[in-house]
Amino acid sequence: MAEVHIKSHGELIRSREAGHGMPGELFGRQDVFETDVEVFFHKHWILVGVTADVPEPGDVSTVDIGKASIIIVRDDDENIRTYRNVCRHRGARLKEAVRSTVGMLVCPYHQWTYDLDGALRNTTHMGKDFDPTCRSLIPVHTKIVGTHIFVCLDENTPKDISKLEATMAPRFAPYDLTNTKIAFEQEIIEEGNWKLVIENNRECYHCQATHPELTASFLPEDFGFCPENLSEESLRALEEYKARNATCQASWESEGFVSESVEWLEGEAVTQFRTQQLVIAGDGESQTISTKVACTKLFGNITRRDLGDAHMWTHNSWTHVMSDHAVISYIIPLAPNKTLVRSKWLVHADAVEGVDYNLKDLTEVWVATNTQDKHLVEITHKGTQDPAYAPGMFSPFTEAYVDQFSRWYASRLNAHGI
What we know:
The protein is an alpha+beta fold.
């Protein structure tokens, strides 16, 4: 019997036909999953939280990423710090994966005690020659952009995080996103590979048929469309769309809101991101069913409601910031067929539920959309593992960013010798 050749991770991605989906084994194999976690979640900058996760000194949040775990803490000087969640004694986890408030970080095993700046402050039975200065907590490379907490677990951090920071910091600045609170959180475990979660997020080919709540606030032309053989009515709608976009962007820019689209997705891009100021349909105020603001207490010192949607994505997250609230989602891969999608709805820190906002109005669009996307990812993952699956062709008009993600994924594997 002839020996069956099992393709390597690199061979699988290089076998992808241009403009087509990835081979099913890239979504289902355990060895591929483990490499993905190491390359894309340990060696790249990833989003792991928001500043409102740790609003006060002593607040702690823990995030697990594969075998690694990190602690996010706000210290006594209001700085956000991140550490490896590993005691410097015998390696016990310092904190479980829940938020809490502490005065100091105390290992539950032998009570080694660390200050919020990571310094080891107290031990027992270690003798007079023991040097605690050599046993501080291990810090993690961290960047705060707006409210977003990005970390990189590798010592050789990708330098182009500076491009993301330089692009997004002035866009987020008017919203004063560090002066926010979490109004609602949602965690969903999708029974699908993390790459399928990102692919689904990178296209809106599916949106009109599956996301009635989301499309209430989207202009249909933003979904992508085939420009061939458009009817006169469609051509008029396209011209109206272009005119509305141009008018809105000129108005925003005149008041100091940066709205030009920026893409850092291929070529030199390691820390992949894209940003766009989307025009909102209807009343143009927020991603709600009514397209009006869900929270009447606007971010920062903003007085204007119709600022559209400051949208950003990275390879593990997507963000929507409006004048009244923000929705920030990020993913953590759990297994080849399991991905955690964690979403947070932010409002002004002083906003009061029932007075300034109604939780249903605030959350119904993305709660529904996340639930719908969960189903879409799950049926797609199952299909890619079927023996009958053969990667299909992407639409060049509505799935160009999915094709681009596949190219970036391949280029990053190649850069790591895979």
